[in-house]
Amino acid sequence: MFINFLLVGIGAGLGAMLRYGISILIKSKWKTNFPYATFFINITGSFLLGFLVSSAVGPVWQLLLGTGFMGGYTTFSTFKVESMELKWKANFRVLFSYLGLSYVLGLIAAFTGIMIGL
Q1: Residue whose C-alpha is closest to residue 42's, from 103, 117, 115
Q2: What is the pLDDT of residue 17?
Q3: What is d(CA 88, CA 30) in angstroms, rounded to the nearest whole number?
Q4: pLDDT tens-digit map of 49-79
Q5: Contacts of 11 (CB under 8 A, 6+ apart)
Q6: Does 71 show up as a binding residue in the annotation?
Q7: Alpha helices (H) along 30-74
Q8: Contact of 26 with 36, CB cutoff 8 Å
Q9: ∠90-94-16 over CA atoms, to 5°?
Q10: Which residues, at least 6 apart from 27, have a Cβ–Cβ distance to it below 8 Å?
Q11: Mind listing the GO molecular function terms for this protein (predicted)?
């Protein structure tokens, strides 16, 4: 049982570090109102998790990569906070673009990942 917690913790730490690195890189390249870093992370995370769950990986890899890494990599809470910030700034064009594209492309990415993983 302890090994499962360890696998999830290691995966989550690695996923969070990658998310942080990607965020720094994207934010340094594109200074814009649209939250490209979180958008990119969540879309790629949807694809990767879709691929992972449809692949024939064992339960150890599911814990390490699925629950751990992807849980640390993707960021639903940041997505929601950034959405609220856009609302508070009355930047409704960017807000609705962010919400719509995140949901639609997230579903497409997850579906594509699942289909490739089969």
Answers
A1: 103
A2: 98
A3: 22
A4: 999 999 989 999 999 999 999 999 999 999 9
A5: 63, 64, 65, 67, 68, 69, 70, 71, 72
A6: yes
A7: 36-54, 59-61, 71-73
A8: yes
A9: 110
A10: 36, 37
A11: fluoride channel activity; metal ion binding
Structure tokens at 23: 């965020």
Q: Where are the domains of the chain?
A: 1-117
Q: Count of CB atoms within 10 A of residue 96's CB?
A: 13
How far apart are the C-alpha atoms of 109 and 42, rounded to whole Å? Answer: 10
Mean pLDDT, the chain, whole residue set: 96
- C-alpha–C-alpha distance, residues 47 and 2, integer Å: 29
CA distance 57 to 10: 18
74 among annotated binding-site residues: yes
Asked if residues 106 and 66 have their Cβ atoms less than 8 Å apart, the reply is: no
The model carries a pTM of: 0.93
